[in-house]
Structure formats: C-alpha cells, structure tokens
Design goal:
The protein has 16 helices and 13 strands. By secondary structure, it is of the alpha/beta class. α4 packs across α10, α10 crosses α11 (224-230) and α12 (278-288) packs antiparallel against α16 (426-437). β4, α11 and β5 (234-242) form a beta-alpha-beta unit. The protein has a seven-stranded parallel β-sheet, with helices on one face. Strands 3-2-4-5-1-6 form a six-stranded parallel β-sheet.
C-alpha cells in the first residue's frame, strides 16, 4: 500500500469513521478495497494492543492485501479468508476433528444415481450439463441454511441467480438429491458445512478465535451463514465492503439477517472509479446496465471517471488461429511500446487459459499465473498483479485486482460448451465480463471469433473500436 496515495474527502471520511459497524458500497475501481485496508491499518496502528482481521475474497486477493500491508510493522493484523480462519478454529469451536470430503463431485454423482431410481426421466438426473447447477443449488441450500424441505420449498430465489426455472417437482427432486448427498458424505463434511455448523452454534465460538476489529472485503459473494459468523466474531467493530454489481456467486441475504446494522449513517457509497479510464468504464457500464441486478435497490449506480484514454478494441477473427495471431501481436506491440507493462490476460475457464499458455510458451513469452496456489504449483510461476510482465488469471480470480493492460480472450458463445439452452444464466456472464473489463486501468482489448459471444452484441457500439481480421 503506497503511503503517498491522495484520498478524496469522502474516502478520508470513511477511513476516519469510528462507529462500531460500517458498510462500504463501492463500484469497481472506487478504491473500496484500498480504503478497507487503509482503515484496518489505521485502526491497528492506533490500537497496537487490539487484534485486527481482514477477511479477503480468495487467496489471490489475500496475497495482494498482505503485500500492500508488508511495509508496515503491524503484528496485530491478520489477513485471511473465511475458510482458512474457520478450518483453523473448527476444533476449538466444536472440540472435535473435522473430516473434509475431497471428492464431493463423485459423492454428488452417486447421490443423483440414487435419486434416479424414483425420478427416472427427470432432467436433473439425466442432463449431465446441469451438474454444476445442482452443486451450486446445494451450496445455496447450505449457505442460506435452508436445510429443511419446508424452508427450501418456500424460499424466494432473489439473489440465487440462474435462469433454471424450478417447479414444485423440481424442488422436490433437488431436495432429494441434497438428502442423498448428505448420506453419501457420512461423517465427513464439505466446505459449505463449515460455515453452516458455526452459524448454528455461534455461542460455541471461543473468545480466542475472535478479533477486536473485523474487516470483510467483497462481502456480496459470501454466503449468508459465513457472513453471520464473521459479523459475530468482532469484539469492537465490523467494517464490510461490497458491490452488488460485482456479485459473481449465487448468494442471497440481507445485511440485517447477518447481524449488520446499516442504518443511521452506517452506509457509505462510493460511485467514482479511480482505476479505469472513462472509455473503459463506458463500455463496462454498457453491459452492466442490461444486468437484472442493476434494478436492485442496493445496486450502486456509477459516476463516469474523469480520466481518459484510448477506446477499447474488440478484435473479430474467423477462428481460434486468428485469435492466437491477434493476441500475440497485441502482446508484442504492448511490450515494445511499454517494456514495464503489467498485462493481464483474462480467460473465462481453464480450457481457454490452457490455450493461452500454449501460445505464450510457443512464442517463448514469460508469464505468471495469478491464482490460489496449490502444493503442486511452481512458486516461480505464481505471480502478483503488481509486477511488470504477463499475468494469466480467470474472471473469478481477477476480482479486486488491476492491470495497466487487460486482454480478454475467447469471448465466444459459452452455451456451445455448457449446452444449458434456455437454462443458461446470462446475468452471471454479464457480471463476470463487467468484472473482467473493469480490471483494466488504461487499455482494454477483447477477442472473439466464430460464433461470437452473445454479450458482444450487447456492448455499446459507440464505446469500442471494431477490428475485423
């Protein structure tokens, strides 16, 4: 975190806010995460005998937050994710060992086969392309604590996302799959169970597991039960940062339901983007305004930036090979004109990212992944978004990060791969594309080919330069 940052009057007001609870609603690039970190740093420095925890979205953002705070000597600050904290404190809470199931997909497939005996012709037991939806639905059931059929059957689906329409029979089938899946787990639990169990027994969370001050970033993508836990563990203050416009997971809750009082001046709204140029955000907003979430009462309506730059470009090529050539030429041009450039190449899925990896390795271009590291990863290939060079990441992992140059690949119709037909959730795709585009600070290039992405046609034509190759 740079010490010479000039904060706006509104940002300074938020940093100095001294109430016990605060919600910061900020659009992409508004400095929400930066303010959250600065506020946490300010509290930690003023109260060295009090503990401060920053709960970040994902390992990549946690690493970024740690890096920004490393110049300060703050031993009372902990930067972590919900699950990292929860797994460390599970035994302290329940006085028993946690057995985490590592093969949840197989357990779910076995559960579906079991339910298939009764519902032979139902799409949820026959259409393999709906398996991800079923996984997410079970995660939503647990994340919202709808684990009794009467609760699940009557639950409004606002915030759930997904365009899969559920009839009364559909809900019964899903719930039967959920019950069969729970039986398959046996004495083991999955990641969703951790927060669910803690939220049901908040009184068992030990004082040593708590913190004096808790800061939660990207809260819109946390589940209701996980937020209930996080809002319970601060002894003195709780500060939450969120933006419904960047909500890329199917969660549903109200702030009151998780224990956060946002009334009486406890909500601050940041509408200005300081990251990107006016041209980039005009294009990003042209897709966001078609998202159903823009009608939500808590959606933060943006103001356009004053900083200007080149128009984003959309490259249309005939096929994959054409995209490869165009992508490589764009990279080489950037590196020639700006050798210290930080170039973020963002892909929607692993298949697309693998294609970029093969292209870069064939051209002998150095690159780094920005992702949640695993024990099998080469540490030299796991990078941060701050250093010069080519960075590869997914739309999901890019949340909260920024790059001077952003190249978004393979914007082709995802329905051809996922085959969900009318059940495809375009709003989630709009939100993911918005998040990806708004990572760009100065230059944004998008690449499409063949049966182009439906959302390419939704982009405001006045806001980008069309390049046909």
């Amino acid at each position: 975190m740079k010490k010479d940052i000039k904060y706006s009057a509104q940002q300074k007001e938020i940093i100095k806010y001294s109430g016990d609870q605060l919600l910061i609603r900020g659009i992409a690039g508004s400095g929400k995460t930066l303010i959250l970190l600065e506020k946490a740093r300010d509290v930690a420095a003023k109260h060295p005998d009090e503990t401060v925890a920053i709960f970040s979205y994902g390992s990549a953002l946690t690493a970024s937050a740690n890096r920004q705070l490393e110049t300060y000597n703050l031993p009372n600050v902990t930067v972590t994710t919900f699950h990292s904290w929860a797994m460390k404190n599970y035994f302290k809470t329940f006085k028993k060992k946690m057995y985490l199931e590592n093969h949840t997909r197989q357990k779910l497939l076995d559960a579906i086969e079991e339910v298939k005996r009764e519902y032979v012709n139902h799409r949820f037991v026959n259409n393999k392309d709906l398996i991800t939806f079923i996984e997410e639905e079970i995660g939503w059931i647990k994340g919202s604590d709808l684990c009794e059929f009467t609760k699940y059957d009557k639950a409004p689906r606002k915030g759930r996302g997904g365009k899969v329409r559920l009839s009364a029979v559909d809900r019964k089938v899903i719930y039967n799959i959920y019950e069969a899946y729970q039986k398959q787990l046996g004495y083991r639990i999955d990641y969703h169970d951790i927060g669910l169990r803690m939220s049901r027994q908040l009184e068992k969370i030990q004082d040593e597991s708590k913190f004096d001050h808790v800061f939660i970033d990207e809260a819109q993508d946390l589940t209701k039960v996980n937020l209930q836990v996080l809002c319970h563990i601060p002894r003195k203050s709780c500060v939450v940062g969120a933006d419904k416009g960047q909500k890329i997971f199917t969660t549903s809750f109200t702030w009151e339901s998780v224990g956060l009082n946002i009334k009486g001046g406890r909500t601050k709204v940041l509408r200005n983007s300081y990251r990107s140029t006016r041209e980039i955000m005009e294009l990003a907003y042209s897709i966001q305004e078609k998202d159903e979430i823009s009608k939500d009462e808590e959606f933060t309506r943006p103001d356009l930036p004053t900083k200007t730059g080149p128009k984003p470009k959309v490259f249309y090529t005939k096929g994959i090979e054409g995209q490869k050539r165009a992508l490589l030429e764009a990279i080489e041009l950037i590196q020639k004109e700006d050798p210290q450039a930080t170039i973020g190449i963002l892909s929607r899925n692993k298949k697309h990212m693998k294609r970029v990896v093969n292209l870069l390795e064939g051209a002998k271009k150095k690159y780094q992944f920005i992702k949640s590291p695993s024990k099998n990863d080469d540490p030299d290939l796991i990078g941060t978004h701050h250093d010069p060079g080519i960075k590869l990441t997914s739309f999901h992992t890019a949340k909260g990060l920024e790059f001077k140059y952003v190249l978004i690949t393979d914007l082709v119709d995802p329905r051809t791969e996922e085959r969900l037909g009318e059940d495809f959730d375009w709003d989630i795709e709009r939100r993911l594309l918005y998040v990806a585009m708004s990572r760009a600070m100065q230059v944004l290039n998008l690449f499409t080919y063949g049966d182009r992405h439906f959302l390419i046609d939704e982009l405001g034509e006045a806001y980008y330069e069309k390049i046909i190759i």
